[in-house]
Design a protein that fits this description.
single chain, Rossmann fold, seven-stranded mixed sheet, 7 helices, about 30% helix, about 20% strand
């Protein structure tokens, strides 16, 4: 292969230069945040943008309200934020999703839960409690990691799971029923390799991130609607 042709093939992944795949040290130890936009966040934003019309009304988001405000805009009514740490100043609800009574019943039109279920041992209980917190017709948006490193900082000691699309769909269907659940996988071999190395979207570009190969799920997303009465 001529050198210019090789350079063109590598240009879409500047950070994943020749030889990088053999190293044991990542480009970034924080999922790519220190280099720009993490690859899993690119997929999360694709997912939420595709369903942005459903992000509305009384909304709960876990961690902070950034996605609710960004994708729900003026459709948001009351905004709540759940955090497990009582020291977090932005939280309106404090507690563990796996604990009964943490969430008020029949309260929310929309819940956004990104990259959180992997930190909960009793994920099935957490999904049941999320279902119980939705109003009739309310919608849960959830994302979970597939191929991923484990957090090296505050959440590493709580990290329990990575999931396949089958696992997430089964959990959601058990709580919501089979007619009100949609799931989707994001990622491929290139995306998974780049994500494990800590490359950012700014490093890789987006062209090679968009094809989907379900054998290499970087992110799995689900939308589940509570039955209307």
């Amino acid at each position: 292969m001529k050198w210019p042709k090789l350079v063109r093939r590598l240009r879409g992944a500047a950070a994943m230069r020749l030889g990088r795949i053999s190293t044991t040290r990542p480009l970034s130890a924080d999922f790519g945040f220190s280099r720009g936009t993490p690859i899993d966040r690119y997929y999360i934003e694709q997912f939420l943008q595709a369903h942005s019309a459903d992000i509305r009304g009384d909304t709960l988001e876990v961690g902070d309200d950034s996605y609710s405000r960004r994708f729900g805009r003026d459709r948001i009514g009351r905004q709540d934020v759940l955090h497990v740490d009582p020291r977090y100043a932005g939280a309106t609800i404090v507690g563990d999703l796996a604990t009964s009574g943490t969430l008020p019943a029949l309260t929310f039109d929309c819940i956004i839960l990104t990259q959180t279920l992997q930190l909960i041992m009793d994920v099935e209980a957490a999904v049941r409690h999320l279902r119980g917190a939705l109003k009739p017709g309310g919608i849960l948006f959830v994302t979970v990691p597939g191929v991923s490193s484990v957090d090296r900082s505050e959440w590493g000691g709580r990290w329990c799971w990575s999931m396949t699309e089958h696992a997430l769909r089964t959990m959601l269907e058990n709580a919501f029923g089979t007619n009100d659940v949609r799931t989707k996988t994001y990622g491929n071999l290139f995306a998974a390799t780049a994500f494990l190395h800590g490359a950012s979207v700014e490093d890789t570009g987006t062209t090679r991130l968009n094809p989907v190969d379900a054998a290499y799920p970087v992110l799995v997303a689900g939308r589940a609607r509570a039955a209307s009465t």
